[in-house]
Amino acid sequence: MSRPDVSAQRTAEILAAATETFARLGLGTARMEDVAAAAGVSKGTLYLYFKSKDALVAALLQALFAPLTEALTLLDGAGTAEDRLTRYISATLALLEGLQSRISLVFDAFALAPRNEAVRQLMADHLHAYHAALVRTLEHGVASGEFRPVDTAQVAALLMALFDGLLQMAAVDPEAAALRTRGRGALRFVLDAIRRPPGRSA
Amino acid sequence: MSRPDVSAQRTAEILAAATETFARLGLGTARMEDVAAAAGVSKGTLYLYFKSKDALVAALLQALFAPLTEALTLLDGAGTAEDRLTRYISATLALLEGLQSRISLVFDAFALAPRNEAVRQLMADHLHAYHAALVRTLEHGVASGEFRPVDTAQVAALLMALFDGLLQMAAVDPEAAALRTRGRGALRFVLDAIRRPPGRSA
Amino acid sequence: MSRPDVSAQRTAEILAAATETFARLGLGTARMEDVAAAAGVSKGTLYLYFKSKDALVAALLQALFAPLTEALTLLDGAGTAEDRLTRYISATLALLEGLQSRISLVFDAFALAPRNEAVRQLMADHLHAYHAALVRTLEHGVASGEFRPVDTAQVAALLMALFDGLLQMAAVDPEAAALRTRGRGALRFVLDAIRRPPGRSA
Amino acid sequence: MSRPDVSAQRTAEILAAATETFARLGLGTARMEDVAAAAGVSKGTLYLYFKSKDALVAALLQALFAPLTEALTLLDGAGTAEDRLTRYISATLALLEGLQSRISLVFDAFALAPRNEAVRQLMADHLHAYHAALVRTLEHGVASGEFRPVDTAQVAALLMALFDGLLQMAAVDPEAAALRTRGRGALRFVLDAIRRPPGRSA
DNA sequence: GATGAATGAGGCTTCATTCAT
DNA sequence: AATGAATGAAGCCTCATTCAT
After folding, report:
1. What Cα–Cα distance (Å) separates residue D184 from each residue in B103, C92, D89?
2. How many whole angstroms separate alpha carbon B131 and alpha carbon B120?
3. How high is the pLDDT of residue D194?
4. Which of B57, C180, D33, D111 is the most buried (most CB within 10 A)?
């Protein structure tokens, strides 16, 4: 009945400010001072909640990826495989659009991954969970007769690559973005390619 | 017939050393001293050839992307559209595998792009040239009857995203990579999807 | 009633240390490290109080000239023109003797002036105020009949040049200095030359 | 009958270029590279003619002061003391106006003097020779009855200070310069003050 | 003599982190 | 818990000087 949430809330505030600041200035460029200013606290306070800049970055990236990982549950929901994929992709595209300004953090994370084990692990875990969920869904579709008997691992990887790539392109060339449109088009393309032709069974 | 190549060669040596060093340590982490040591010259010499660390990074990224841009000419060569795409993708996958250890530089570049106009421009230019060449090739294929009348801009974007995404995933999870295998599989998948069914006209 | 003086005091300490250090080693030769050591703080602390070495130098020169400019008020005090001039020169000579060891800073400032607009402005402002005050005093003396109807602007410039020159010579050749003696002698010489001969009006 | 003058000429060229360059950029700011470029030779060549930057500066200042010292012979020429003083001051003012753009070097030299024994010696020597010549001339004037029996050492110092001061003021505030006009006015002022009143002997 | 590429010591400045209050 | 002044290691860059050609 004490208030552990007081500091929990402060932690969240700092994390939010750090996310905004690091996204705007870059992981390497943003200074702890900048984060402190954005959070409305002093530099010293940052160190009461996070051991170091690295720890703050790690926590921040974890928080950034959490909703994306959580959205994977949509792939194990009810409905046809196609429904699930569509639902998941819609939700994810919405999440990504919500990330908007924070998108550059994702690239900072990718750049960091090969040289920071914690970050690499974090991202690898996400990608594995992502891949596994896609494979399960695709196999469900194949088993149910929705999809042709494709190489599910291969198609899963292809779908992941597709969306990562779209995200990346959107970041470099935001005008040509239309991330949501492109994303849906890409899914449709893949579904068209793996869907079992309708009148085929006749 | 004098020796303008003296500097040219030294420039190339420094660029090579810088590439290796920045790839290994990261654009932000590597120090000019590290580059100098790798190049076997003194710190001061670096500044004889490049005005600043930023200039060195810019030159290095330009050099990194040049062969990738150059490979685009394969898309405008002879043969069917499918041949050209296959040839180009093979060449590019080979290039990327050759990049191997330097691949993290690409991600550093992506992370830098939103905050460094020179880098953003460099990458945007490459992506535009890439997209235009793909569109040309796909339209050729559609005109010749190889491909179904697909939305070429959309498919081109999809192909680009696909390969960028594969590259990205390969970096985070190098073991599951098999970049070349995955890449060819992805191309085959797309080609299968857009190829005009053989006996269809009958 | 908080402690805005904490920084104010530290600022003053640093300024004092910088003055001593720059005077001893020269504006160009002294390192920020030297100043820090003299102030008993770390290098980083210097930058908490002054944006750069240049800013520190500018602040220091401003502080150096302030008392000299302030002494000009003596020229507008009570008494005959001759009293005022004598009083002012005495006070200024005392100030300059107090500057003693810091005198080389004045020459550094003169050397800097043509190439540093802030410094040039600072000194030009002082010289203009100086000249104007002298002219006012001389004109008062002419109006009151103390002085012959001389060209006051010219005599003012001459007085200024005289004292600047004495200062300069004292710096190069400190032994022959006797700045105070020479200074008083110079003033007497000028006063003798412009004073209206006593019984002349008879 | 060889050509020792070849290198003598080259030495002079370098000295001229150095003078212009150091005057323009400042003794501390100008780089050996700048001097080399101005002289139209390579950096290495500079070191064939001068052992170091310091040596170059010393030679340059010596050359700068030489004509001023030489002009002192005019004080020992023919004519009345007043003639000689007038002639000398005219010649010197012309020299100084010729120095124009190089005038800031004089202040660099004054700033350097307290911390560079060679420079201090050079300037002290000049000032002593200057003072001695003035004293001689004034004493000649007193002896001949041109001047009142003034304290010649004191008046000599006063004259020197006067002209040094005028020079200094001209540098800080070039617009109010009119160095030549002010200089002549100053001399006239002093002569008027020490000249024996014409009909006085009667 | 002349060159200019190469050197490396050294200066200015930044910033993650600490700690006394 | 919170602060923010203080620290000092470390990075980028400059430039006087050297030396092989």
Report:
1. 77, 27, 8
2. 16
3. 95
4. D111
Q: For residue A30, give the 3-state DSSP assignment.
A: coil
Query: Which nucleotides in chain E have some atom under 7 angstroms from a protein Cβ?
Result: 1-20
What's the pLDDT score for residue C166?
87
Give exposure, C139-156, as e/b (b: 16+ Cβ within 10 Å).
Answer: bbbbeeebbeebebebbb
Determine which helix (DSSP H) or strand (DSSP E) holds A174, and give its type and residue range: none
Residues with Cβ within 8 Å of A55's Cβ and at least 6 positions away in sequence, in order, are none
| Cβ within 8 Å, pair A189-B158 | yes
Token pair of C181 as six digits = 């003696």
| pLDDT > 90 fraction of chain C, expressed in percent and rounded | 62
Do D142 and D150 form a contact (C-beta atoms < 8 A)?
A: yes
Residues in chain A: 202
- Candidates B53, B54, B100, B108: best to mutate against A (most CBs of A within 10 A) is B108
Q: What is the mean pLDDT of residues C30-58?
A: 96
Residue D13: C-alpha distances to residues D4, D45, D183 (Å): 15, 12, 32
In 3D space, the residue among D128, D146, D129, D135 whose CA is nearest the CA of residue D83 turns out to be: D146
Query: C117: buried, middle or exposed (CB in 10 Å: 19+, 13-18, 0-12)?
Result: exposed
Nearest nucleotide (CA of C54 to C1') = E12
User: What's the average model confidence in pLDDT over C173-195?
Assistant: 84
The Cβ-side half-sphere exposure at D114, using a 13 Å CA radius, reads: 25
Examine the pLDDT at C202 and tell me if it is beyond 80: no
DSSP state of B132: H
Separate counts of helices (H) and strands (E) for chain A: 9, 0
Rounded, the Å distance between the CA of D32 and C1' of F16 is 8
pLDDT of residue A150: 93
- What residues pair up with B195 in beta bridges, in sequence order? B147
Angle at A76 between CA A73 and CA A82, to 5 degrees: 115
Other C-beta atoms lying within 10 Å of the C-beta of residue D191 = 18
In Å, the largest CA–CA distance within chain D is 72
Contact A154 B123 (CB under 8 A): no
Rounded-to-10 torsion of CA D59, D60, D64, D67: 40
Report, in ranges, which bases of strand F sit under 7 Å from a protein C-beta.
1-20
CA pair distance D64, D122, nearest whole angstrom: 11
Partners of residue B153 in chain A, C-beta under 8 Å:
none
Residue D48 CA, chain-centre distance (Å), reads: 28
Nearest CA in chain B to A153: B182
d(CA A132, CA A123): 14
Q: Tell whether the model's pLDDT for residue D2 goes beyond 50.
A: no
Give the tokens for residue B116: 């460094």
**3-state DSSP call for residue A165?**
helix
Positions in chain A short of pLDDT 50: 1-4, 200-202
Spans in chain B with pLDDT lower than 70: 1-6, 173-177, 198-202
Contact C129, C157 (CB under 8 A): no
Q: How far apart are CA B109 and CA B106, in angstroms?
A: 5
Cβ–Cβ below 8 Å for B163 and A161: yes
CA–CA separation, D190 and D201 (whole Å): 21
- Check residue B162 and report its DSSP letter: H
Partners of B147 in the β-ladder: B195
Q: At what angle do helices A179-194 and A81-99 cross, to 10 degrees?
A: 160
Domains of chain B, each with CATH number or no CATH = 1-50 (1.10.10.60), 54-201 (1.10.357.10)
